[in-house]
């Protein structure tokens, strides 16, 4: 009898256990089937909602020494955030270049104000950069809520930031456009102009080596919305690059610094400027740039300083009215520390003191990756 009771009890426990197991499994599998997968829009919007926005203004910053893409991506992303109800404002860490001023005048949009420093715990969204050294002063002690960027490497780690959109495309403005799509927010015409300017500038009208198919798709979508045809895109691009490389009234040091980026790689503090030059007169131009490099190195305590100089050759073809210049190769000039070793490892033997050259056009992003490899092998 006792055995029977025990057996009965055990059976009851076993049945109860199985019931619980089946019920739980059934319920979970059921809920999996019934629960709709959240749409891209819902995921993006709920992620935005989940951020710790605080009560003060959140600033949206592109990189220091901003180019058009840095300004455009910050302006357009801040606008998206405001449309979604968040208190965000675009700022720039330093003054803007002539190309940005030109296109803002042409398209009639307001440029962001300069803010050189942010207090600790300020909420930030950063666009178009991934290095603290390129960010606004104080970024290290700020709270970075989001990062929208199209660069490799860098010391602003994705893992500490709640929302990161980082894809190695030709322009950060392309990624901002995709965020509008993810949010289900239509791009208004002013924002369309701003983003179009960013893509035109960073890809030089889709001609730069870093350009991806998605940059072309977004550029044409925006141009279509605005009724801007291919010829007008070419003209805009020509005027913008003309403004960027209008060096009138600038000292040689100003010219060298007009599009310079700093990096910390394997403990080395380096700077790489990006310049364009239209033939003839390249040798003289390189000499002038080489002459200012020692002073800039000393003033900024760089370990090494470089500049890539893209060569542009007068176009003698039929389309010379539309494109007066065609692309040539890339010069890479160097000064200080192990810069000769680095430059020659990437570009081959020097042509003359401080000068290397590649027939193939090289973008700064590609150069930074190659330089990083060499510097990582040095210490
Ligand atoms: Mn960019």
Can you describe what's shown?
- The structure is a single chain.
- The chain has helices at about 1-35, 40-50, 70-85, 100-105, 170-185, 190-205, 215-225, 230-245, 250-255, 280-300, 340-345, 365-375; strands spanning about 60, 90, 115, 125, 145-150, 165, 260-265, 270-280, 305-315, 325-335, 355-360.
- With about 375 residues, the chain is α/β, with parallel strands linked by helices.
- It folds into 2 domains: about 50-240, inorganic pyrophosphatase (n-terminal core) (Alpha-Beta Complex); about 250-375, DHHA2 domain (Diaminopimelate Epimerase, Chain A, domain 1, Roll).
- The strands form 2 sheets. The chain has a 6-stranded parallel sheet.
- Helix 3 runs parallel beside helix 5 and helix 11 (about 340-345) packs across helix 12.
- The chain binds manganese (II) ion.
């Amino acid at each position: 009898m006792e055995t029977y009771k025990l057996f009965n009890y055990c059976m009851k426990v076993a049945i109860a256990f199985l019931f619980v197991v089946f019920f739980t499994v059934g319920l979970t599998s059921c809920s999996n089937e019934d629960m709709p997968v959240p749409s891209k829009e819902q995921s993006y919007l709920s992620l935005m909602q989940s951020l710790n926005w605080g009560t003060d203004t959140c600033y949206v910053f592109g990189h220091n020494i901003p180019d058009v893409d840095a300004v455009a991506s910050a302006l357009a992303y801040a606008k998206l955030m405001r449309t979604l109800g968040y208190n965000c404002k675009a700022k720039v860490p330093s003054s803007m270049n002539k190309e940005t001023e030109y296109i803002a005048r042409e398209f009639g949009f307001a440029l962001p104000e300069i803010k050189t420093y942010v207090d600790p715990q300020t909420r930030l969204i950063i666009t178009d950069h991934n290095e603290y050294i390129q960010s606004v002063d104080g970024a290290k002690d700020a709270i970075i809520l989001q990062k929208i960027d199209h660069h490799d490497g860098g010391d602003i780690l994705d893992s500490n930031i709640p929302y990161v959109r980082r894809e190695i495309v030709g322009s950060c403005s392309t990624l901002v456009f995709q965020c509008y799509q993810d949010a289900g927010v239509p791009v208004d015409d002013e924002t369309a102009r701003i983003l179009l300017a960013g893509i035109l500038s960073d890809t030089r009208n889709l001609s730069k080596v870093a350009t991806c198919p998605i940059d072309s798709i977004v550029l044409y979508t925006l141009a279509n919305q605005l009724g801007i045809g291919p010829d007008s895109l070419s003209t805009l691009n020509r005027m913008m690059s003309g403004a960027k490389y209008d060096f009138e009234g600038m000292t040689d040091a100003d010219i060298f610094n007009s599009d310079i980026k700093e990096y910390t790689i394997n403990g080395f503090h380096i700077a790489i400027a990006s310049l364009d030059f239209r033939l003839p007169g390249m040798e003289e131009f390189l000499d002038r740039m080489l002459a200012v490099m020692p002073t800039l190195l000393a003033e900024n305590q760089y370990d090494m300083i470089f500049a890539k100089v893209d060569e542009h050759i007068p176009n003698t073809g039929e389309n010379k009215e539309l494109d007066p210049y065609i692309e040539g190769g890339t010069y890479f000039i160097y000064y200080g520390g192990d810069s000769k070793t680095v430059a020659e490892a990437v570009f081959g033997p020097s042509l003359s003191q401080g000068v290397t050259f590649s027939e193939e056009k090289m973008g700064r992003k590609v150069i930074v990756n190659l330089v990083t490899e060499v510097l990582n092998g040095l210490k």
